[in-house]
Known about the structure:
The complex is a heterodimer.
Chain A (H helix, E strand, L loop, with lengths): L15 H10 L4 E2 H11 L8 H14 L2 E7 L5 E7 L1 H25 L7
Antiparallel strand pairs in A: 1-3, 2-3
Chain B lengths: L7 H21 L4 H12 L2 H10 L4 H19 L1 H30 L10 E7 L5 E2 L1 E2 H10 L3 E15 L5 E8 L3 H5 L5 E2 L14 E4 L1 H8 L9 E4 L2 E8 L13 E4 L12 E9 L5 H18 L1 H4 L3 E6 H5 L2 H35 L1 H9 L4 H37 L15 H26 L4 H7 L7 H36 L10 E6 L9 H16 L4 E7 L8 E7 L12 E7 L3 H5 L3 E4 L13 E5 H7 L9 E7 L6 E13 L19 E5 L8 E7 L3 H15 L6 E5 H8 L1 H35 L1 H9 L4 H30 L15 H23 L7 H6 L2
Parallel strand pairs in B: 5-10, 7-9, 16-21, 18-20
Antiparallel strand pairs in B: 1-2, 1-11, 1-12, 3-11, 4-5, 4-8, 4-11, 6-9, 7-10, 8-9, 13-22, 13-23, 14-22, 15-16, 15-19, 17-20, 18-21, 19-20
Helix pairs in contact in B: 1-2, 1-3, 4-14, 5-12, 5-14, 5-15, 6-9, 12-15, 12-17, 12-23, 13-16, 14-15, 17-23, 17-25, 17-26, 18-21, 23-26, 25-26
Amino acid sequence: MPTRDEKDRIALLQGTLDLLILRTLLFGRQHGQGIARAIQLLSGDELLVDHGSLYPALQRLETRGWIRAEWGTSDTNRKARFYILTKTGRKQLVHETGQWRRLAAAIGRVLGPGEAEG
Amino acid sequence: MFWRKRKQSDFSDEIQAHLALEVARLQGEGMTPTEAEAAARRAFGNVASAQEHFYESSRWLWLEHIKRDLFYAVRVLLRSPGFTAIAITTLALGIGATAAIFSFVNAVLLKPLPYPHPEQIVSVGEKRPDGFSNPISTLNFLDWERQNRCFEYLAALAFDKVTLTGSDRPQEVKVHRVSASYFKVLGAGAALGRTFAASESEPGNDLEVVLSNRIWRSRFGGDSQIIGRKIILDGKNYTIIGVLPANSEFDRSWAAMWLPLSFAPVNMTRNFHWLYAIARLKAGVTLKQARDQMETIGAGIAAQYPDSNKGIGVAVNPYIDQVVQPELRRSLWVLLAAVGAVLLIGCANLANLTLARGTDREQEIAIRSALGARRLRLVRQLLTESTLLGILGAMAGLALGNAFMHGIKLWLPPDMLPPQANVGMDYGVLLFTMVIGILTGILSGLAPALNGTRPDLARSLKESGRTSAGSTSHRMKTGLLVAEVALSFVLLAGAGLLIRSFNRLASLNTGVDTTNVLALDLPMPLTEFTNSTALTNYLKEVTEKVRSVPGVREAAITNKPPMEGVGGAPFQIEGRDNLPYPQRPLCGFKMVSPKYFDTVGMRLMKGRGLDEGDVAGTVPVTVINETMAKTYFKGEDPIGKRILIRQLVFGKAGRGPDIAWQVVGVVNDEKVGGKGGGIGLDEDIPVVYVTFYQNPGIGNSLVVRSAVNPLVLSEAIEQAIWQVNNNQAVTNIETLEEIKSESIAPARLRTALLAIFAGIALLLAAVGIYGVVSYSVAQRLREMAIRVAVGASPGDLLKLVIGRTMLLVLIGLALGAGAALALTRVLASLLYDTSPLDRVTWVVAGALLAAVALLACYFPARRVMKVDPLTILRFE
């Protein structure tokens, strides 16, 4: 297991990584490193993507047909494998986003106002 | 076919690209290339691990794993040939025995009868008021045949023996006389020629014969031109019209030939019960509907002919219930359970062995796990090893089981298995054996695998297996030991009960003196003797001639030798309340010559025996047996009383008016059942004896007492008989000892098999205890050394080790006794004069097991007495 230096960062919930990857790809094609970076930036440095789980997740999403991949050249003119959101992936994103919102709202209600900040 | 979606190299490229991108970014933020590289790698984490994860998400990975595990397993097993040999032998023994017994269970109990739609075939019989099934009288059968609407075909069958003459010596042939529709009920056809057509059931039109394949080959040389040839049976010309298929149930049948069953006018009676019937249900008719309909028909006949049929119903049962008798069914299941237990004990032994090895392999496993192998993979690896052992064991077991099966078949008494059962190693048995092998492998490997991969590798690595094994492993080993002892006890107790019962059966008093008595059958066709006087004179002449053979002491005629069955007769004691005929009690009815009692060694208890003067035309007299006297003449003197039994008319399948047989004497009980007649060797039934002069019939036997071993005389006896009539077939020449031995053959077989299995179980348990104790002694040598160092004597250590093991053995015995209490009950119906809770057997079984266990733990435990604390502790 890779060791995690930044202990104060929030560990990703099982399954949420898939959602975040799909969301990131909504902006257009991106390679693995770019996805990890994007999630970290978008979360305001709160979320750290464990690369050990990023690639298996990409592999899983690809197998399910929600994303597809192609080799291309990055902005810095390097060869990289780019991931693109597919049509079914887009549908899945909508679906999972809805699910997540409901879950978050529900948990929020249970925890009560203010305390959710913890 | 699925291919792995991406190549591994493609993935490596991707990771390299990722790292390159990250390095570029970090350099952009101002790091030096070296710093950036290091940071990127740190951020990414374990590259190898990511690759491993990627690799494992591939679909075909499991196949590759299995392949690798298998290669690894083969290497491991080859590395320790001793362990592998012991493991495979243990498994092969258990699996082989199981496969052999299962081949019988499969053929007799599991496979459907070898006919099309066997579930539609039923047996049909008369149901007596006491609930027992009875053979059918001719007119009842014909009425059923005419009135029923539920059977597609209804066929009758009668047992008979005919004499084949014309070439060689006269030969007795067992035949089934069957209705023309008999083969249609079964749905069986001839391999050569044809079976019977409907017209052949008419008298005069019935001189045709169908041969079994076996007699066609043995007696007629497998002549393919045989159809249409004539043979002489009972002096009449029969035409061969068909030969039945080879290796079919007809080759294993009691009968060797099938003749048409036709009813002569003299057979048209309602009070002579001699037919058996089978039928095929019409499509869509259920067993219950058939039962209801036949019950109605039976009631109608009973109302119309109360004299013969009052209270007589019709029994309709699935044919399979008649083919497979309950005793056989029970014996087979008991034996299968027994070999199953042996196999389980073998499993436990193997599990123990693997556990012990597991401790030795702890380091190997710890290292693999430190290198990143996850627990599931390790468990899978270990299970692959034990499954491989299971499969190898199953393959060896199949070879062994095949040999076992053939051995048992050789040993099998004739007619013990139904002819329909074709015992062999077929696909069902093969599949069962392989599945058992794999399950056995998994079962014996699961506990050690789970135990051996416990995630506390740090300790294992540090301590390098020097201290005692973990407590889980130890608990598991003691548990397995207790289970082995318990299972062994159940088997030993069961085998002990059967042995005790068998010994009692074998030494039971048959009521006759079986030494130096020969019995032989004298089949004769009715056609040769048109009247009874000719028959009695002939038999008298034969008896006299045999008596004159040197070495013969006495000779007598009987319709059945001892233990070979008896005919039944409904009787009424004169002067008692008159019962309707069908409600009369039954007694055995034997027609003998007056010297019969002397010849077989029966004692006269009261009155006189039968006499040469008791001939046709004088007062009919009878000698009754003790059971008859005790049951029906309780507290009174039977001598002078008269017993009414309807006359068996010579040459006719029917009974005449009552004859009043006057009781002149009482003899001791002879065992009339055992080998034949559906009566057990241990049963005493009421029997009346009359002279064959006063009640002649065909189908007699000769019993001969000699001064020497009677088998030596058999040739001379045959010659003597042929001097009187060289067309007389002489068959079934056996001593009474042989007949008795054959009557207990099924009990002997199942007792021997169970004893063998119990023996194997005991041996395996002993090996298991030996293994556990020697292993634990080896593990505890350090502890023992310390004990010696602080003053324990070698004897103390011995007591410590043995005491602990024997405590476990006692717990196992107690558990085994509890299980046996419940399980030996199923043996009850197989036991003769022995209670399933027989105390002596239980104590002996327990003591034997305890003694063997003590020996098995004494030898390895002795090692602790040689403990030298200095040598052992210095290694620290």
